[in-house]
Design brief:
The protein is an alpha+beta fold. The chain has 17 helices and 30 strands.
């Protein structure tokens, strides 16, 4: 190794162990980023306010390493010039990788692995060994230094303000609902039902998906910025990385590395990956904020997070990839997954939570053939006892965890018997990842009918005000004073029909969101239904405001179908809408049902599907994407 670089490394050894390890990890991340993307300018630049620099500054010899590698200082960053040799950088990366491997190998988990039940079945032993390994791995979320780093990245004040705004809206809604309800209070939503902690989690997850983390199917080519496709997977010598995917550019055929990190620390800087990386970092963020959280692994290849709700005394399902909370049947009913084993891991315990996520017990049990139920249960009990009886484990914490687990076991025992408890629920297919990737995995919903939902415009009085935000993906019904009366999450849950496989697209690079058709569809159509169920009322006027954007000869057309008799479809007329930005119709007197239809079609080239964008808005935009006002009158 170069003498100057060796001198810098010798200086690093003079630091305390924690400071040195932090600095070595940061230097390793810098080296690997550049070596994986040698021609990408963004990886050759380290901003001075980057968390990586915070790890380097306290360490003697760390910044000296960067300067010796050829980095030069600008006003607000350190940059490795394109002409700088990568020879020293490769040598440093090799040295730090070996040091990191040696450090990780010091940990001895032999005792936990000895708890695996005796079995002659190699497949079963591999499955049980993986459970032990994962149970050991979740302890990385308990690193207080790492939690502190993660917490600094969260805009806590901004999320608290958003949470308070949501609470005030709910309070207004409860007040109005109670004022308009009958004397009986049975079934009413109360202010005591509002949990600020859970509402904060919703805001945290929304920020995480749309402002912090990025989904990656294949990385961009670092040479020509073209699209890449998976080429092969190779093992990694870095213990923080489970494997390295090699992707090939479809344009210049350059090979691009995509390390799949299982350690959340480098991901706090990289901020990208697929569901494994998403769940790792999001679980860490939850732990850094003090939530009792656990990492949930579905053996049919997906991961997410659960958080214990003190308010509801149960574990809440959170999927940061989908920005979905408390929808555990989404995978079975929306993604069409044939579930087998779903295991949750926390610092306290490991638990088989499969029954929270399935209502098909008979068929699921037929698929659980990898391991005997007795051996699985025995290992879980042994691991929990081993963890909770360790020397540093608090007796009071142990009692708390035992009580919490009893509550969960009662819940899980009951769930398989609730076969038809949510037949009216609507679940969508997976939204993250390319359509081709999701289709190959069988995680695209086969339903094209949407939620089959109709808005009853007469239950709010003689005025109906509907607002939809593509950014927050939520419908809100407002009163005349702009107070919220009702809220429905998910654009598809407020429509009566979807044709052409429409989906909500979020462009994290451009910070935009919109509805579009899938690439395989020549057109897409969304329909909203508005009905009058009060026999004493009818529709008088209709007002529409909608945001759209088209490119390259693509088009979006609108029409309004008006029904004057809900039982006779012949008594209707169709009105084309030429200007959706501000359309007003007053020839509707006496009508009792409206069907609003938006159709996207046309466009040139391979990306034609993307050129007709319904409700396109910036992720920073607070304006409404769709506004519908309906005035009613007495018959």
């Amino acid at each position: 190794m170069d003498k100057d670089l060796q001198r810098c490394l010798d200086l690093l050894k003079e630091n305390t162990e924690n400071v040195r390890h932090d600095a070595e990890g940061a230097l390793l991340t810098v080296c690997q980023n550049i070596l994986c993307h040698p021609n990408d300018k963004q990886f050759r630049e380290v901003c001075l306010d980057d968390p990586i620099v915070e790890k380097l500054l306290p360490a003697i010899g760390a910044m000296e390493c960067l300067f010796d590698l050829g980095f030069v200082e600008t006003a607000d960053s350190l940059i490795l010039p394109p002409e700088a040799s990568l020879f020293k950088l490769q040598a440093l990366e090799s040295h730090l990788s070996e040091s990191c491997i040696a450090r990780h190998n010091i940990v001895d988990n032999t005792e936990a692995y000895n708890l695996i039940p005796k079995t002659t079945n190699l497949k079963e032993r591999a499955f049980l060994t993986q459970i032990v390994h994962q149970f050991q791995s979740v302890l990385r979320f308990e690193n207080t230094i790492l939690q502190k780093k993660a917490r600094r990245l969260i805009p806590i004040t901004e999320l608290q303000i958003a949470t308070m705004t949501r609470i005030r809206e709910l309070q207004e809604r409860i007040k109005l609902s109670n004022e308009n309800s009958e004397k009986s209070t049975e079934g009413l939503f109360k202010e005591s039902d509002i949990d600020a902690n859970e509402l904060f989690l919703m805001e945290l997850m929304h920020w995480f998906k749309y402002k912090f983390f990025t989904w990656v199917d294949s990385p961009r080519c670092s040479a020509c910025m073209g699209n890449c496709e998976h080429y092969k997977t190779v093992p990694s010598e870095d213990p923080r990385c489970s494997r390295i995917e090699i992707h090939k550019c479809t344009n210049c055929e350059a090979l691009v590395k995509f390390p799949r990190y299982s350690d959340p620390e480098p991901l706090l800087t990289l901020k990208r990956g697929r569901c494994g990386e998403w769940a790792n970092v999001f679980t860490l963020l939850c732990r850094s904020l003090g939530y009792d959280s656990r990492y949930v692994h579905d053996t049919t290849d997906h991961v997410w997070t659960e958080v214990w709700s003190m308010h509801e005394q149960r574990w809440i399902h959170l999927d940061p990839c989908e920005d979905v909370i408390d929808r555990p049947l989404m995978y079975e009913k929306g993604w069409n997954k044939k579930l087998t084993y779903i295991i949750a891991y926390s610092k306290d315990e490991v638990q088989d939570v499969t029954w929270r996520y399935s209502r098909d017990q008979t068929n699921l049990m037929k698929r659980r053939t990898v391991c005997s139920e007795n051996n699985l249960l025995q290992l879980i009990e042994s691991l929990n006892k081993h963890r909770q009886c360790s020397a540093n484990y608090s007796p009071s914490r142990k009692q708390y965890v035992i009580k919490r687990r009893l509550l969960e076991l009662v819940e899980l025992i009951r769930m398989p018997n609730e076969q038809n408890s949510d037949n009216n629920e609507s679940y969508q297919g997976r939204t993250t990842g390319s359509y081709k990737w999701r289709l190959a995995r069988g995680e695209v919903s086969q339903s094209s009918s949407g939620a089959n939902y109709s808005w009853d415009v007469s239950k709010y009085g003689e005025t109906f005000h509907l607002r939809y935000s593509i950014v927050k993906d939520v419908y809100k019904v407002m009163d005349d004073d702009d107070r919220m009366l009702e809220e429905i999450l998910g654009w598809q849950n407020g429509v009566i029909e979807i044709q052409g496989s429409m989906f909500r697209k979020v462009e994290n690079d451009w910070k935009m969101a919109y509805l579009a058709r899938f690439s395989e569809a020549t057109s897409g159509r969304v329909k909203w239904s508005f009905v009058v169920t009060n026999p004493n009322l009818c529709i008088s006027t209709f007002h529409l405001q909608a945001v759209i954007k088209t490119f390259n000869e693509a088009s979006i057309s609108w029409q309004l179908e008006v029904f004057f008799d809900s039982t006779n479809s012949t008594k209707s007329l169709v009105i084309p809408i030429n200007d959706c930005a501000n359309y007003y119709a007053n020839q509707l007197e006496g009508s009792v049902k409206l069907i609003l239809t938006a159709t996207v079609f046309g466009g040139q080239g391979s990306n034609a599907w993307q050129y007709a964008q319904l409700f396109r808005q910036s992720l920073e935009c607070k304006d409404q994407s769709l506004v519908i006002n309906i005035q009613l009158k007495k018959r």
